[in-house]
């Protein structure tokens, strides 16, 4: 008899709560719809982001020539090493601060960190354009890296905007698309605006500022793009941090005020529902909007059931499994809980991918800029051969821009199609296994006849960009899905960005060193094959990755459970808050 008076277990209570919620939903005959795709905020985020790839990619067409003009060495075979140092200075510095910026974004929000990062980029590019020697150039690049931790914070922002897996393939192509556009505009700007006295002698004087600083003009263009990005972000970018997105944002309010002046107050009032919540004065908006995802520990039964107001009874805050305390302690969770084996393996694979793809990006323009050796070195195929293309900055800039155009199409069309067909995990594993072949074959294009050389370069570029546009978004999705909670996304993505930054920094330096050694010894493919060995390690790591059930799956499982519950109508009364049903 005593057993009849024992309290139900926590599991039983939770099951009954779910039945109650499901019955309430079914009673009104509604099925929980997918949240709207966050196209507006992703577009604003893209407009903020575009300035950074333009600034980063614009230096590649002229960096070899810039280092040569510094006259740091008379041996042209050494120039690629110093060019790699300049390229890597940004990523080395970014490595040292990425995790800090990620943690800071968990504390103060994503938007302030993004704006600070863009401001740092603007200061850096102006310094770089005025650099009179190698050391100032290195310092300018390093400053930009120290002040910019946006890679991880951007991934975190996208992950917080996208709350269902159905939107991921489309949403996770946005930032790669932006990078592709930067890959088009950046090299074109760098190639055409570098040394404007030589390129446009009728417009620029040798005695003027652009004669003294021949690489200033492309960097001024980048700085203008950064300034525009900061303004757009300040006025229109919403905060996505779960605990800070409901706070007042003066920038959003100013943006709304400006839009009302441009479009008219009636038009703005008409579209108030389309504006960010922070754009509406605090006294005019509800505490929580319909689309806001409540923090797990503070969801009420009515919030979970999505029932109309008239079908929901009074119910106290339901602190699921100590949700309030769990939420407060999320930031202080042990590292082993946040950085699980699944998260660590994805981060390692991301670092390896960043290393060999950055090595490719830095090697290709150097490979195309290098002139054939003055003294011919006898070739002994299949491995011993040394040659170069000797192309100018405008030709290289155009090739890199074509690379960007193709990657734009591949990211927008190919990745969503393939990812929806086979899934992000399987796609990433396939790319990891196939990547080494790219580095094996690339150096041999220099042996082709002149009539086929340019065509072969375009073929290699298409090959590389196809793999990159499939691998990077897949990895980003795997990382986001492995995170236990959105409150730790900043730290996880910060750690991933830190790892990738270190690898991006090492990639150009190590590949530049082996390229120099290879050209001197007659093995011009040496650096490419070293990158291929790293890609082989990446293939092994990629095959170890698993995709455990995470927060996204739990949310979908809850929805499915709710849909499958029997159609029972339960109206909890006031006493249900403290007394379980018998």
From TrEMBL:
Spans annotated as Disordered: 1-35, 291-318, 549-582
Location relative to the cell: Membrane
CDD domains xrefs: MFS_SLC46_TetA_like
Membrane topology qualifier: Multi-pass membrane protein
Entries under Gene3D superfamilies matching the protein: MFS general substrate transporter like domains
Keyword annotations of the record: Membrane, Transmembrane, Transmembrane helix, Transport
Name this polypeptide is given: Major facilitator superfamily (MFS) profile domain-containing protein
């Amino acid at each position: 008899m005593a057993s009849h008076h024992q309290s139900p277990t926590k599991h039983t209570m939770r099951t009954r709560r779910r039945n109650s919620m499901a019955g309430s939903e079914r009673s009104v005959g509604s099925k929980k719809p997918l949240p709207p795709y966050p196209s507006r905020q992703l577009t604003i985020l893209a407009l903020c982001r575009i300035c950074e790839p333009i600034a980063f990619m614009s230096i590649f067409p002229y960096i070899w020539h810039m280092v040569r003009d510094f006259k740091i060495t008379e041996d042209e075979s050494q120039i690629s090493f110093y060019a790699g140092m300049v390229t890597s200075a940004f990523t080395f510095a970014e490595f040292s601060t990425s995790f800090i910026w990620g943690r800071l974004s968990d504390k103060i929000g994503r938007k302030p960190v993004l704006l600070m990062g863009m401001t740092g980029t603007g200061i850096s590019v102006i310094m770089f354009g005025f650099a009179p020697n190698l050391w100032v150039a290195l310092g300018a690049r390093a400053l930009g890296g120290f002040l910019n931790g946006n890679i991880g914070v951007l991934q975190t922002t996208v992950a917080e905007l996208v709350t269902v897996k159905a939107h991921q393939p489309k949403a996770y192509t946005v930032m790669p698309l932006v990078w592709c556009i930067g890959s088009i505009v950046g090299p074109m700007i760098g190639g055409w605006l570098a040394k404007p006295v030589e390129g446009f002698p009728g417009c620029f004087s040798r005695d003027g500022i652009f004669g003294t600083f021949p690489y200033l003009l492309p960097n001024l263009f980048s700085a203008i793009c950064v300034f525009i990005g900061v303004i757009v972000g300040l006025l229109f970018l919403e905060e996505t941090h779960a605990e800070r997105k409901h706070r007042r944002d003066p920038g959003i309010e100013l943006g709304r005020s400006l839009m009302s002046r441009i479009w008219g107050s009636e038009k703005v009032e008409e579209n108030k529902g389309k504006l960010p919540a922070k754009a509406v004065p605090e006294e005019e908006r509800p505490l929580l909007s319909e689309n806001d995802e409540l923090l797990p520990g503070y969801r009420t039964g009515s919030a979970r059931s999505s029932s109309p107001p008239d079908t929901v009874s009074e119910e106290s805050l339901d602190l699921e499994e100590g949700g309030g305390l769990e939420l407060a302690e999320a930031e202080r969770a042990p590292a082993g809980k946040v950085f699980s084996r699944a998260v660590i393996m994805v981060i390692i694979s991301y670092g390896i991918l960043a290393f060999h793809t950055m090595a490719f990006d830095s090697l290709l323009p150097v490979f195309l800029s290098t002139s054939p050796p003055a003294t011919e070195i006898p070739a002994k195929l299949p491995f011993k051969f040394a040659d170069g293309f000797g192309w100018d900055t405008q030709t290289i800039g155009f090739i890199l821009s074509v690379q960007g155009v193709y990657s734009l199409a591949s990211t927008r069309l190919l990745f969503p199609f393939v990812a929806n067909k086979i899934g992000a995990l399987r796609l990433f594993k396939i790319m990891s296994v196939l990547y080494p072949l790219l580095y094996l074959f690339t150096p041999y294009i220099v042996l082709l006849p002149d009539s086929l050389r340019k065509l072969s370069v375009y073929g290699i570029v298409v090959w590389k960009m196809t793999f990159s546009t499939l691998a990077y978004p897949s990895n980003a999705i795997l990382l986001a899905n492995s995170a236990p909670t959105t409150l730790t996304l900043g730290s996880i993505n910060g750690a991933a960005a830190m790892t990738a930054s270190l690898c991006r920094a090492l990639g150009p330096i190590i590949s530049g060193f082996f390229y120099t050694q290879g050209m001197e010894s007659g093995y011009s493919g040496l650096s490419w094959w070293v990158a291929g060995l790293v890609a082989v390690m990446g293939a092994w790591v990629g095959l170890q990755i698993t995709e455990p059930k995470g927060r996204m799956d739990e949310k979908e499982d809850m929805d499915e459970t709710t849909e499958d519950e029997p159609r029972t109508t339960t109206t909890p009364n006031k006493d249900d808050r403290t007394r379980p049903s018998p």
